[in-house]
Amino acid sequence: MNFLTKTFTLNKTILPGHTFLVSTIRNHWNKDYKPGPYPKNEEEWERNAKKYNLHKSEYHPYPDDGTGLGDYPDLPMISADSKDPFYPYDNPELRRNFEEPLHAEFDVMRLDRVDVNAKFRYPLWVMLAQFLGVMFFSCTIITLGEYVKMFHPLVPRQYPKEGKTYYTFEPIC
User: Which chain regions cross the lipid bilayer (predicted)?
Assistant: First the structure.
């Protein structure tokens, strides 16, 4: 705690009145993460490929259709679930290496999200038919249960009446 106090007072003595310098240096701004404009010539393609650590033949930016992705590379959609779990990644929690470019939809393709490369056991139409079959069967049973009442058979309740004996303490024999 003493270290923090001395550091704070040191900053006040070195930078009096310039607290904005101390507070703005610690992080990057959002403009640093914004992609640049779509490359228009060969030099820009090479510069952007180097910027994203890709070979010139591997660099293909998203089409310039107004989505705002600019010069960001159009990477293949490979989920973290589809990557080799035994490879010695630099960041094994995300299954990626240092300075590996991220996909534009990286937040969707992490280990705790959707696997876009999943191969299902059955085709989609079979799974849809199974789901609709179960729902139809359940709704049919519930609907029939509303019209056909089922209950345990019971005798009518015996309410005490005057002059009628319900129970005596006399022996049977």
Answer: 122-144
